[in-house]
Amino acid sequence: MSEADPSPRDAEWLAREQARLDALPLGPASESFGHVVHAADGIARIAGLPEVCMGELLQFANGAMGFALTLDTETVEAVVLDDLPDLGAGTRASGTGDVVRVPVGEALLGRVIDPLGRPLDGRPAPACHETWPIERPAPAIIERDLVSEPVETGVLVVDALFALGRGQRELVIGDRATGKTSLALDAIIAQKYSDMICIYVAVGQRASAVERAIEAVRAHGAPERCIFVVAPAAAAPGLQWIAPFAGFSIGEWFRARGQHALIVVDDLTKHAATHRELALLTREPPGREAYPGDVFYLHARLLERAGKLSAELGGGSLTAIPIAETDAGNLSAYIPTNLISITDGQIVLDSRLFAANQRPSVNVGLSVSRVGGKAQKPAMRQFSGRVRLEYAQFLELEMFTRFGGMSDTRVKGQLARGQAIRALLEQPRFTPLRAIDQIALLAALEDGAFDTLSTQDLRALRSKVGARIDAGAHDAITAIEEGRTLDDAQKSALIRAVGNG
Ligand SMILES: Nc1ncnc2c1ncn2[C@@H]1O[C@H](COP(=O)(O)OP(=O)(O)O)[C@@H](O)[C@H]1O
Ligand SMILES: [Mg+2]
């Protein structure tokens, strides 16, 4: 075959290649990338990324993701989100032109994911059609509505004395191992029969503790309406840092559709410590307790995103239960005081009460709910105010009578009532009480039905109360469901149903 005379097959090949060449977009193409100068402790310093923006998502050549935290004149300091090997001096890094985002949508329900939406439960990646930035502005005042519907946590001491409303932010605070996580999980589990979407964000927790939390919800709650966003203690600090923000964006997606969501962040003390770690590594000037000056702003802008939307915007809500850990009950440390002042109330758990087997170990004197009372059911409000007052008086009286016997019958009556309240407020885990059960118990308490009952008898009675009311107090149930207060006939029907048997 001579060169001048190509065979038909070669001619065909030539024509095809020519067409391919013609279709190629030839011309100058630009790609911007930089190189890591130094990487350690979850921070990478990158040279050669002049166009990168604050907070921009970066991609490293080894597959790790990161985001720009501080922009210097010559270099960029980035938080690395994955703890992958081979990230060191010389690793190529490029900007993605986008901020950090998290997948949102219904596909996340029932899933365990990391803060970037990657699956941690061994199932395929959730099929979400949308991603939302993890940092989003809080709803403006005009877009909000008053908190007016209750979140029923099923925990009597919370629902009766420190009621939560949809859209509220209530801090759960206490020393380690005082039942903070358990209380928040009980609130999630009680949503089994409600319409709430629950999001549990684990920040800096031990993997085994997170596993136990997930197991508890799977065993007792409605896992198909829960989302677990997990950045355990072993995860890169950057991943822990973005976890609460990612969780809020996921919750906001449901709220924007007019749904109601509850987010638990366990816990913000660890989140603050991660923030401090990253700030110190990037040489931000340390302030009080070595936290950078913006740690208040960090949590304020996060928690400000909770809230109830106005009817024009669909009326959805996002309720937040952040958790904070104290040292030796010190509520006036830096992070606890910040969080107390940001939230709409706090439930203080007390290690002494916990040790005395008063569980949930809520310190009634130090706890407060600043907006939830307005969201209580009218029938609940009818009884709960009195209980709070009686219990406060009892706690004071108990202090005095400890020193000497008081024989006054009125005082004895008050003491008996107080002890009955204390016994009633004790509640094992995973035993949520419906609003109607709680109201019945409070009505019976006010009637004096529990003053002579032993703690064991009260415990036994409480486990049966639901069935008895369903059988014997239909009128009262209708009144409570329709949002009315109880008249005398309904009240005594309830009390009779509780005391029956
Ligand atoms: N209401 C309760 N009744 C009985 N035990 C409880 C109750 N709440 C918590 N506990 C127990 O107390 C322990 C510590 O609870 P946890 O929620 O992990 O505390 P924290 O989150 O404050 O460290 C757990 O073993 C838990 O089972
Ligand atoms: Mg805990």
UniProtKB/TrEMBL annotation:
Residue span, ATPase F1/V1/A1 complex alpha/beta subunit N-terminal domain: 33-97
UniProt name for this protein: ATP synthase subunit alpha
Task: List the gene name.
Answer: atpA
The record describes the protein's role as: Produces ATP from ADP in the presence of a proton gradient across the membrane. The alpha chain is a regulatory subunit.
UniProt-listed NCBIfam families: atpA, PRK13343.1
Subcellular location per the Swiss-Prot or TrEMBL entry: Cell membrane; Membrane
- Site annotated as Required for activity: where? S367
- Predominantly, its location class is membrane
| EC number of the protein | 7.1.2.2
Instruction: Give the UniProt keywords, A-Z.
Output: ATP synthesis, ATP-binding, Cell membrane, CF(1), Hydrogen ion transport, Ion transport, Membrane, Nucleotide-binding, Translocase, Transport
Organism whose genome encodes this protein: Novosphingobium nitrogenifigens DSM 19370
Name the PANTHER family for this protein: ATP SYNTHASE SUBUNIT ALPHA, MITOCHONDRIAL
The UniProt entry, under SUPFAM superfamilies, shows: C-terminal domain of alpha and beta subunits of F1 ATP synthase (SSF47917), N-terminal domain of alpha and beta subunits of F1 ATP synthase (SSF50615), P-loop containing nucleoside triphosphate hydrolases (SSF52540)
Q: Where is the ATP synthase alpha subunit C-terminal domain?
A: 376-498
The taxonomic lineage of its organism, from the top, reads: Bacteria, Pseudomonadati, Pseudomonadota, Alphaproteobacteria, Sphingomonadales
